[in-house]
Amino acid sequence: MDLYHKRPTVADIRALKGKRQLTMLYVETPDEAAAAAAAGIDMLSIIDPAWTEEMRKAAGNCFVQVGLLYGQLVTLEDYQRAAHRAMQVGGDCVYCASSMGTIKALADDGIPVVSHVGLIPSKSTWTGGFKAVGKTAESAMQVLDHVRQLEDIGCFGVELEVVPDRVALEISKRTNLVLLGMGAGPHADAQYLFAEDVLGCTTGHKPRHAKTYRNFASEFDRLQQERIAAFREFKADVDGAAYPAADHSVKISDDELEKFIARLNDTAT
Asked: pTM for the complete prediction?
């Protein structure tokens, strides 16, 4: 099967486990989604508020994981409504880091669910903050136990974040979940980066596992200076009466103008 000429299904993604690594990007705009599709990226992660029909079209044949935001959604019904809406717009699976009960309810509804193990940003206080997880035997077993729990309740995959590479290898051998690796080494089933890190326009902390391929930040800075210059030139034109020029204005014939003024004079008397 050629993933670049056919939008893959969950079964297709699962069938690739252990055969080749998938590529995955977190994108935020239709332009990024379209660029990823054109580049042959396998999977995209797009958060629910940004998930629209426009984004689905831009994503082309990419398999799209729609992120259900932990904290903004609270009740089981919140998650169910958001998940079903995401799928109706064309999502291929949803990301959910809520409770086991919520995740199971979504999976029981037949919705493909990806959850999160290792460093879970929204719950990092439980593992000591934003740092690697699984660096001790006990911690590594906790990660594996979490994976097994998610597998038992029907998850399709998990984001495996900032876990030692050899721990990821052993976990991969012991689960049928698709492991979406973020700083988990070469043994995960997919390599997952954020588009902003790849493009060099990271706005916050740049993680150690990120790799930058372009410098969009300097390009954005250059474009901002060009914006400022253009706006200044516009202001100068207005201040100096250079804008609007004759060719920027709508014309009226002399005859029609005379008629208009005559009618104005008639109404004034």
From this structure: 0.88
